Amino acid sequence: MALDGNEKREFKVIGQRVNRPDGIDKVTGKALFGADLTAPGMLTGRILRSPHAHARIVSIDTSAALAMPGVKAVVTNADLAEPQDDFFRDIKDNVLARDKALYDGHAVAAVAATSRSAARAAIRAIKVEYEQLPHVTDVDDAMKADAPVVQAGRADESVPAGSSPNVTSHFEFGHGDLEAGFAKADTILERSFKTAATHQGYIEPHACLATLGHDGRGELWCCTQGQYNVRTICSQVCGIEATQLRVTASEIGGGFGGKTTCFIEPVALALARKSGKPVKIVMSREEVFRASGPTVSSSSDVKIGMTKDGRITAAQAKLRYQGGAFPCGTVEFGAQAAFAAYDLDAVQTLGWNVLTNRPKEVAYRAPGAPMAIYAVESVVDELCQELGLDPLDVRLKNAARKGTLASYGPTFNDIGLVATLEAAKAHPHYGAPLGENQGRGLSCGFWFNFGGNTCVSLNINHDGTVGVVEGNPDIGGSRASISMMAAEELGIGYDKVRTVITDTNSLGFNDVTDGSRVTFAVGLATIEAARAAIREMCKRAAQIWGIDAEAVVWEDGAAKPSGPNAGDHPPMTLAEIAAVMDNTGGPIAGHHEVNADGAGVSFGVHLVDTEVDTETGATKILRYTVFQDAGKAIHPDYVEGQMQGGAVQGIGWALNEEYIYGEDGRLQNAGFLDYRVPVASDLPEIETVILEIPNPGHPYGVRGVGETPIVPPLAALSNAVSRAANVRMHELPMSPPRLLKAMSER
Amino acid sequence: MKYVKPDSLHAASVLLAQETGTSRILAGGTDVLVQLRSEMVEPDLIVDLKQLDGLRDITAEAGGFRIGAAVSGAEMGEHADLCAAWPGVVEGVELIGSTQVQGRCTMVGNLCNGSPAADSVPGMVAANAVARIQGPDGERDCPVLDIPVGPGKTSLAKGEIITSIFLPARPANASDAYLRFIPRTEMDIAVSSAGVNLELDGAGTVIGARVALGAVAPTVRLVKDAGAALIGSRLDDAAIASMVGAVEAACSPIDDKRSTIEFRTKTAGVLAKRAALIAYERAGGTS
Amino acid sequence: MKNTHVTTTVNGDAVEFICEPDETLLDALRNRLGLTGAKEGCGTGDCGACSVNLNGRLVCSCLVLAAEAEGAQVETIEGMADGEALHPLQRIFIEKAALQCGICTPGILVAAKALLEKNPDPSETEIRYWLAGNLCRCTGYDKIIKAVQAAAAEMRSA
Predict the structure, then answer these.
(1) Whole-number pLDDT of residue A7
(2) What are phi and psi of A108, to 5 degrees?
(3) Which of C62, C111, C132 sits opposite B33 (nearest CB)?
(4) Is the pLDDT of residue A554 over 90?
(5) Which domains are seen in chain C, by residue range?
(6) C63 neighbors B30 (Cβ within 8 angstroms)
(7) Tell me: the pLDDT tens digits for A699-713?
(8) To which H or E segment does residue A201 belong?
(9) Which of C5, C50, C65, C136 is the best residue to mutate to test the B interface, defined by the most B CB atoms within 10 Å of its own CB?
(10) Measured distance between the N- and C-terminal CA atoms of chain B, rounded to whole angstroms
C-alpha cells in the first residue's frame, strides 16, 4: 500500500500529542497485567530448574511430591505433545527439558498446588538424578574443535565442513572485490570485539493463568507480545487444536522482543489439564534472568580500509554469536545490518550462530544489529581519529542513500540517513565545547523494520463513535496511534474512536508485536479498514439521496454529493449515517487483512558526551542526543519515548549490563541488584530530534521507530569513552574495572 | 514460621536464646525479607523489635548520640543535629538502598547482616561507635569494630540483640566523611568504600584520624597505619600518599562478579583520599 | 504454617485479612485484598514497582511482612486519585506520555507523590536520585522526570 499521493496533506489528528486511551487505567492501578488475574479454585504453579549448566537427566521421581498435601499435578517433558517441527520441539524442550538440562535454570519439572508454600515443598520433594557433563558458555570456546557438544546434529547445510558441532548456521552477504578495495586504502584497520549477553529487562516477569477443561477447551491469559503466537506454540506443544485455545493478552509490562515466545504457558496448560483446575504461574525475577531469553553475546572481527580523505574502499566483518542451547538465526540480522549505513563498492559479512550452555536467546530490540554495528562503528571512529577526519563528515561521505546497493542485497528506496546525519551536524550539541577527560562519540544505527500478517476490524456504532479491533498488544501507546489513524482517515475526533486489543478467537491472525511493525502495519490495515467503512457509508448516503454511490465523496467526516450532484444535498456526517444504518442495510464495518510489506528501513544517529573518572574508571554521561527518521511521527511523544528508551537500554548495554557466568557455568547475577540496568540518576536528559522522510510503503509515510534507537548507543558510548579516556575500548560492557585496567595499560 | 512481637527487649532476647531452629530479628526487614523471598533462609522464628520503647529514638547522650536499633536511614537523615555532628556516618547510612529502602533500613541491621560491603559500617568504625547489646543475662557495650567477624557472621552470642549505637561527643574541629564506589550512581552494593574521621587542632593540623575500609576484606577494616599517616599533617600530598599506601597495603579483597582485587585495592585508596579531603574541609581545615 | 490475622487501614479504609506468616505486604495487598496496582518486579527491593506508603514512609511492600501492617496506615496507588479526580501527578503522567508499558507507573507515582510532599520544589537531580529505586525500562526516564517537574510546578502554584 503506497504513500498517499498528496504528500503535503494537512493532518488534523496525526502529529498531535493526545492522551492515550489506557492512560487512566495505568495511572490508577486498574490496568490488569499478567499476574493480576485470578480464577476461582486457582492453583499455584511452580517450576523446578536445573542447578547444573549441562547434565544428563538420568531420572525424575515425582512420586513423593505428588503424595504431598495440596499437590494437584506434576508434569515433565513427557506430559507434552510431540511436535514434528524442530522449531516447536525446541520450544517444548526448552520449557521442560527432555533428556538433558542444557543450562543453569533449565526447567525440569513443574507442580501445581493449592498454596505457594505447598508448591515450594513439592518442588523440593521431586528427586532428579543428574549426570553432570562438561559445559561451555563462551562463544569462542564453543567454536573450538574440542568444545563440549551442547546438542549434536543441529548444524544446517550452511555450516562449512570441519566446524565445531556447536555451529548451527552460517551466513554470508556482500558484493564487490574486497582485495581490490583494500588495495586502494591508505589505511586499513582490523580489530576484534566482544559484547556480553544482555537481557531485555522488562519490569514485568512472565506470568500466565491457564485453564484446560476435560472438554479440551482452553483459556489462557498471559503477558505476551503476541497472543496468536502463544496460541500457535501452545497448540503445538500441548496438542490442542488452535480454535480450542483462546489466548487473551494481558496488559504487557515491557517486552522489547523478550515476550515473543513461550516459557511458562505450555507448562501452565499441561498442569491445568492434569489437575482440572486453573493454574497460575508467575516467574520470579531470578527465573526471568536464568531461564527466559537474553540476547546473544558476540565476538567479532572487523576490517575496514579508508583513503586519506575518508572514503571507505572495502569493509569486512566476521561475526560469531552464541544464542544459548538451541539453534537461533540472529547472526543473519547482524551480518545484514553491519554495514547498512554505508554505500560500499566492496563489502563482505560472515556470520556464525553457535550453541552454548546458556538460555536460548530471544529477540531483543533490533536483534543482532547492535553488536555488529558496534564493531563497525568503532573501527570507523578509530580510522577517523587516526586520519584526523571529522567522524560526521566521514559518515556523510560514505552514507547510504536512495539507490545505494545495500550490503545485504536490496537497493534502498527513500531513506533518511543523510538527513539524519545533516541534522546531527547542524545541532548545537555537535559543536559544543568539551572539558578535560571528556569525549564525544557518535554512531549510526539501522533497523530493517517489518510489516507482516495483520488483521483489523473497524465498527461504526449507532451514536457515531467507532470501535477499532486489533490483535497486537499495546506495548507503548499503540492504542493511541491506531485510534489517531482511524480518526484521521474517517475525519472524526480522536475521542470518538476506541481501539481494543482482542483475543485470538475474535479476530483473524496477527503476527507478534515485533519488528517495529505495529504503527506501520496495524496502522496501514486500520486506514484501509476505515476506507472500506467510508466506501460503505458513501454507498448508504447515496442510497438515501437516490444517487449513484460513485457520485459521493468523503470529506471532513461526512459524505458529500459530488460531480453533477454537488451541492444537491447537505453533507451527511458519519454520525448521521450511523444513526439510520439499520434502515439502509444494517451494520457498517470495515475490515482489512494483509501480509504487509513495504516497511521502510530506519536510520538514526546518536551523539553522546561522556566524562571519565581517571582514578576509578567511572563513566558519566553528560549529554545525549538522538536523531532518527520516523517517516511520519503519528504521536510524537511516543516516538520520542521509543528513541529515549532505546537509547537508555543501549547505554546500559555499553556501560554495565552483562550476563556473568562462573566457572561452574551458573549465572551469577540473576537479579536487578547485580544485573545493572540504568537508574534515573545515571542519566541526563535524552534530547530527541525526529526527522520525517516519508516511507513510500505507508499511506501516511510511517516507518517503524522502536528498534533502531538501541543500535547506536553501543558504539557511540564506546567512541566517546575511548576518546575521553584516550584508550580504544574493544569490549562491552565498559564497566569501571575494565576501563580502569585499559587506562592503566595505555 | 512464627512471627512474634515481644513486649520487652529482655523477652525478645530470651525468645531468641530459647529458639532451637533458625531465627531472625526484624527491624527494617530490608535484608531479612530478601533472604526470605530468595529462600536463602526459612526462619522458624521472626522477632519484630521495632515497636519496643526507645528503639526508634535518637537521643542526646554525654555530648554524643544514641541511635535506637529500629531508627530508619530516612529518620537519621532528617535529624539535623546528628547530620551536623556525624555527616560521614549519616551519609553512609543514607547510601543503603533506594529511597524506599531508606524508609525501613536500619544501621544496626546493616551491621548485623555482616556484609563486608555494608555502607554504614566503615563510618561507624571510623567514628569509634559503640554498640549496646541486650542479652538474656543483661546488657553490655561493644565497639562496632568488634561486631563483624566474617562475611555474614558477627560476634553476637545466641539471644544477643544490638539495641542501639552510641556515637561519641564531637570535639571542635572534627568531622567525617564516607565514600563508596559503585558502577551506577545508585542501587549497587559497594565495590569498595572508605570512611574517614578526623580531628584537627586550631591550626588545621590533624590530631586524630581513623580510616575504615569496606568491601576489601572479609570484614570492614580499621586501618590504623592510614590514620597515623595523616596525624600531624594538614593533608599535604605526602601525607595523603602515605595514607593511600597504607590503605592499599591493608586491602585483601577478592575477585568476584562485582569487581576485581586490583580494582578494589586501587579505588579503596582513591576513596580514602577523597573522603579524607571532604572530612578535612568539613572539620574546618584548609589545605 | 499457622495463618496470621491482620487488621490494618488501607487507603483510609479499615480492612482485615488472613495471611501466612512469611507473606509480604505486597502479596497480601494483591492476593488477599485484590489491590493489584502495586506490582512485583523483583521481590528484592531493587525495582520499586511495589512502592506503597506505610505509616507516612515510602517503602517497598515486597520488603514488608504482611503481619507488620497490623495497626498501620497503608496508602497504595488505588488511593491516589480522589474519586474521579486524578492527582496532578497522575493526570500529568498521561498528558506528558510519562509511561509506555505502565508496569512501573504505579510505583513511580506513589514514590513521586512522597517526594513532592516532602519537597515541593525538587531539582532535576533530586528527582532523579529520589526515583533511582524505581526502575523503568521503557522510557529512559526522561518524560517521567519532566512530568514530575511539571506536576510539582502546578502543585506549587495551586
Answers:
(1) 52
(2) -120, -40
(3) C62
(4) yes
(5) 4-77 (3.10.20.30), 88-157 (1.10.150.120)
(6) yes
(7) 999 999 999 999 999
(8) none
(9) C65
(10) 57
ipTM for the complex shown: 0.98
Q: Tell how far CA B165 is from the center of its chain.
A: 10
Q: Which residue has the cell 581545615?
A: B285
- The sign of the CA dihedral B257, B262, B267, B268 is positive
Cα of A409 to nearest chain C Cα, Å: 33
Task: For residue A199, give Cα distances in angstroms to A37, A142, A447, A744, C58.
Answer: 26, 21, 19, 30, 29
| Contact across the interface for C133 and B46, Cβ inside 8 Å | no
| pLDDT tens column, A683-695 | 999 999 999 999 9
Q: Which of A247, A251, A278, A212 is nearest to A506 (CA)?
A: A247
Residue A343 scores a pLDDT above 90: yes
**Which cell numbers hold the place of A395?**
559518515
* pLDDT, mean over chain A: 97
Do C60 and B3 lie within an 8 Å CB cutoff? no
What is the Cα C144 distance to its own chain's centre?
A: 15
Name the DSSP letter for residue B53: T
Q: Which residues of C touch A204 (CB under 8 A)?
A: 39, 41, 101, 103
C37, closest residue in chain A (CA to CA): A29
Question: Contact B38/C44, CB-based, under 8 Å?
Answer: yes
Average pLDDT, chain B: 97
For A54-66, write each residue's pLDDT tens digit: 999 999 999 999 9
Hey, what's the cell of A655? 556501560
Interchain pair C54, B46: CB under 8 A: no
Cα A565 from Cα B106, distance rounded (Å): 82
E strands of chain C, at which residues? 4-10, 13-19, 51-54, 57-60, 73-75
Choose the weakest-confidence range: A212-221, A313-322, B213-222. Answer: A212-221
**Cα C128 from Cα C135, distance rounded (Å):** 11
Nearest of A398, A419, A424, A386 to residue A339 by alpha carbon: A398
Give the three-class secondary structure for C104. Answer: coil
Find chain C residues with C-beta within 8 A of A647's C-beta.
140
Inter-chain contact C45–B2, Cβ cutoff 8 Å?
A: no
Cβ atoms of A458 and A589 within 8 Å: the answer is yes
- The DSSP line for chain C is ---EEEEEEETTEEEEEEE-TT-BHHHIIIIIS--TTS--S-SSSSS-TTEEEETTEEEEGGGSBGGGGTT-EEE-GGGTSBTTBPPHHHHHHHHTT--SS-SSHHHHHHHHHHHHHH-SS--HHHHHHHGGGS--SSSTTHHHHHHHHHHHHHHHH-
Tens of pLDDT along chain C (158 residues)?
689 999 999 999 999 999 999 999 999 999 999 999 999 999 999 999 999 999 999 999 999 999 999 999 999 999 999 999 999 999 999 999 999 999 999 999 999 999 999 999 999 999 999 999 999 999 999 999 999 999 999 999 98
What is the 8-class DSSP label of residue A507?
Answer: S
Omega cis (within 30) before A733: yes
Sign of CA dihedral A383, A603, A624, A743: negative
Residue A214: the pLDDT is 83
What are the residues whose beta carbons fall under 8 Å from the beta carbon of B132, sequence distance 6 or more? B66, B139, B140, B141, B162, B163, B164, B165, B166
Nearest alpha-carbon partner for A30 in A17, A21, A42, A41: A21
The residue written with cell numbers 497485567 in the block is A33
Pairwise CA distance, residues A271 & A95, whole Å: 13
Region A380-404: mean pLDDT is 98
Q: Is the pLDDT of residue A8 over 90?
A: no
The answer to whether A65 and A122 are in contact (CB under 8 A) is yes
Report the candidate in A442, A419, A385 with the shortest Cα–Cα distance to residue A631. Answer: A419
For residues A590 and A529, the answer to whether their CB atoms sit within 8 Å is yes
Band (pLDDT 50/70/90 cuts) for residue B31 is: very high
